[in-house]
Amino acid sequence: MDETTASSLLDGIRKGVPRAWERMVDIWAPLLQGYCRNRGFAPEVADDIAQNVMLRVYRGIHQFERNGRERRLRYWIAAITRNEIVDFCRRNSAHPVAIGGSEHQLQLNALRSVDDSSTDEPVFQPAIILARTLQVVEQDFEPHVWRAFELFKRDGLTAREVAKVLGMTENSVRQAALRVCRRLRAEMADLLDSP
Q1: pTM over 0.90
Q2: Are the beta carbons of 188 and 133 closer than 8 angstroms?
């Protein structure tokens, strides 16, 4: 995604930056698929549910208004996901597709009502979203740039130590880390909890 065009992923989507929506799907679809599979849905059903969630997000993203602590993108996506699962279960109540068949109603009953301002499901927690975003964003950088970022920012080595390990200049190490950090801030501004 072009970080000069949009200050955040959400901003990019709203401005029509072509790569922004693709990035949103790259980050969220695997998380949602895993969430559904962990609830006992077959992989193809989990994929369908995740696809329907992303479609609902796409249709509603321009109306979504972030409101500090009360309304965050991840909570909104969590609510959409739970609603899609409930809708799926209702539509298919005569033909349960969850593992064990009788588990279908248990899954439906286990879905707690979603408060737009909270969720305790691991998939919607900042650490999981951050980990997935790191996996996606890593693909945008040359391996030595990403490694410099990891050693300098994550592992806490000095620029001199990283430069020696990677055969780079200290300034190149700092620049590499700065580029990755800028991208991560742009990608994650709306995904996590910072106002």
Answers
A1: no
A2: yes
pLDDT digits (tens, 9 = 90+) for 97-151: 545 554 444 455 445 443 433 455 667 777 888 888 899 999 999 999 999 999 9
Residue that is written with structure tokens 């691991």 in the block: 122
| Cα angle value 33/39/41 (rounded, 5°) | 65
pLDDT confidence of residue 131: 87
DSSP letters of 18-51? HHHHHHHHHHHHHHHHHHHHHTT--HHHHHHHHH
Instruction: Look up residue 67 and give its DSSP letter.
Output: B
HSE-CB of 147 using CA atoms within 13 angstroms: 11
- Backbone phi, then psi, for 67, in 5-degree steps? -135, 70
Give 99's contacts (C-beta < 8 A, 6+ positions apart). Answer: 40, 41, 42
Tokens of residue 180, six digits: 């990755």
